[in-house]
Amino acid sequence: MSDKAAAKQRFINVFDGLVEELKEILISYKMPQEAIDWFVRNLDYNTPGGKLNRGLSVVDTYAILNNTTADKLSDEEYKKVAILGWAIELLQAYFLVADDMMDQSKTRRGQPCWYLVEGVNNIAINDSFMLEGAIYVLLKKHFRQDSYYVDLLDLFHEVTFQTELGQLLDLVTADEEVVDLDKFSLAKHSFIVIFKTAYYSFYLPVALSMYMSGISSEEDLKQVRGILIPLGEYFQIQDDYLDCFGTPEQIGKIGTDIKDNKCSWVVNQALLHASPEQRKLLDENYGKKDDVSEQKCKDLFNEMGISKIYHEYEESIVAKLKEQIEQIDESRGLKKEVLYAFLAKVYKRSK
Amino acid sequence: MSDKAAAKQRFINVFDGLVEELKEILISYKMPQEAIDWFVRNLDYNTPGGKLNRGLSVVDTYAILNNTTADKLSDEEYKKVAILGWAIELLQAYFLVADDMMDQSKTRRGQPCWYLVEGVNNIAINDSFMLEGAIYVLLKKHFRQDSYYVDLLDLFHEVTFQTELGQLLDLVTADEEVVDLDKFSLAKHSFIVIFKTAYYSFYLPVALSMYMSGISSEEDLKQVRGILIPLGEYFQIQDDYLDCFGTPEQIGKIGTDIKDNKCSWVVNQALLHASPEQRKLLDENYGKKDDVSEQKCKDLFNEMGISKIYHEYEESIVAKLKEQIEQIDESRGLKKEVLYAFLAKVYKRSK
Ligand SMILES: [Mg+2]
Ligand SMILES: [Mg+2]
Ligand SMILES: [Mg+2]
Ligand SMILES: [Mg+2]
Ligand SMILES: [Mg+2]
Ligand SMILES: [Mg+2]
């Protein structure tokens, strides 16, 4: 097993223990067996199975902040920080179960979406609630005695609400049925991706490990937020770019943003620079479910040089982020290395 | 305006202010206008409009614990305790928006269910999340400086999770499509109603006002829980009884539990005492959508004397609760009157 696979396995082993703990709590409530089985299946089906980048990054950040590497952490310390990682994965599971219902998606992580599993249907709504509920059960059990417990709760609440705000704006902006490109704008795109993705995927893991490391002054949290939020935005812009311009081998799937009428960075850039004729082509073809319309959009994006705009954006944002990281004040224990590690993960995705 | 109407109006006025506060927070995030408007409409459509019993009982309990009446509270103190009341109403709104989707209900409080409102549909899932999210935004804004802030958070998390557990068991027990009376039992009924209703409707309002009053030792919380949980169970048993045996004038609606295949106290009592022939009648008619089947079930319930069993249960539980209330230790500031007030509200409903 490679080091990376071993690290992932150790993280997954913690999850199996957490499912047992949650099960025990339901047993202590004398919850009937069929409901316990259902909850365990909900947890197992929806929480692991992804790349676990967010959860693992809590552990890795914590190790950097404490001048060590994850593999050197004792089992006890490892478990505690890994619980914070799994709390993010549970938060993501909560969002994804619901998002798939709202988007009427069919598959997630190579299996049917939870709400499409036989016998589940709309029970998936309550199941998503319970995935979120599990976060607070676990935080209380493992962190109630810590001085930063209330900060963890405030942070989860804040980031959860921000993600819901991003989701709301996404939902009212990009109706799959009614295509109206007037609703799109780069400003809205920026708001959606920052709120829907950047806070919980980039800021949350670092902030959690900072609290557990005792490096959590408002100045330090502000320093990392100032870098991780634009980095998260860059990550999503890259995701949008690759959906349209990446090969299936590169992205591991076939992009569908054009057909899905997504408020993507690519279409927003095109809208910004489009002549009246080009705009007309987009109005007539963007968000249509057929291959011909999709290809017309792609041809237009190529003709407009969106790829070049993307690469210029990428070089410029990466340079800017590096400059910002260099200016970080490490005097209270924060480490530039934390931010460089995040930047490297995003930058190398497309290289 | 009657005293009761004036009290309700003062409570509702606080809500209007809270919606403004929540709006301001979205504005401070620079959230686009259409999403702000959507959130405000979500709050207004789903939160007030009910009887507000749960929210108002926080205020009333707080007044009793502080040797005063609600109308004598200063505007500042009133607003603070009313926020806790609205936090319960938001929690209920969160559950009801989702419950109506899961039950495919058509109306709620005399208007179409939120998910059936033009343009809403599945966005209602994220809207329910945001109703819950609003609780923590408001608690942080108004209680962050208080010593019991973390207790409020723990309490909301615990009760939320308990309610979700009750909802889960309800969903896996009473499938509207597949009628299987073997899934029902009085023990399951008791678990469902305690978890789905009693914790958030009875224990939560009292516990919140106890924290704000500084009367919140674990002994005192345990004392009230020991009375409010069986009282909440009695309330729901009464609700089930009235759904079947109450007149439309009495209950303000036409009961549908039989047709809806509800795991009601009434059918569970019947199952407990049914002869093989009576059981056969239930298997063949309970949960069917037609009036004839429904009437057959009602006739059987009458023949089996379920009404008499209910009245015996009611007299016995009321006597027991009174006895328990009499034994309450008031030495740390808790008041029997709090519990008598709750009991009176439930007992008089059917008298
Ligand atoms: Mg989606
Ligand atoms: Mg979506
Ligand atoms: Mg994408
Ligand atoms: Mg319902
Ligand atoms: Mg229901
Ligand atoms: Mg009822």
Automatic annotation (TrEMBL), chains A, B:
One annotated GO molecular function: (2E,6E)-farnesyl diphosphate synthase activity
Membrane-traversing stretches: none
Superkingdom per UniProt: Eukaryota
Keyword Iron attached: no
Organism: Spathaspora passalidarum (strain NRRL Y-27907 / 11-Y1)
GO cellular component annotations of the record: cytoplasm
Pathway: Isoprenoid biosynthesis; geranyl diphosphate biosynthesis; geranyl diphosphate from dimethylallyl diphosphate and isopentenyl diphosphate: step 1/1; Isoprenoid biosynthesis; farnesyl diphosphate biosynthesis; farnesyl diphosphate from geranyl diphosphate and isopentenyl diphosphate: step 1/1
Family: Belongs to the FPP/GGPP synthase family.
Cofactor or coenzyme needed: Mg(2+)
UniProt xrefs under CDD domains: Trans_IPPS_HT (cd00685)
Record-given protein name: Farnesyl pyrophosphate synthase
This protein's record includes keyword Transferase: yes
EC number: 2.5.1.1, 2.5.1.10
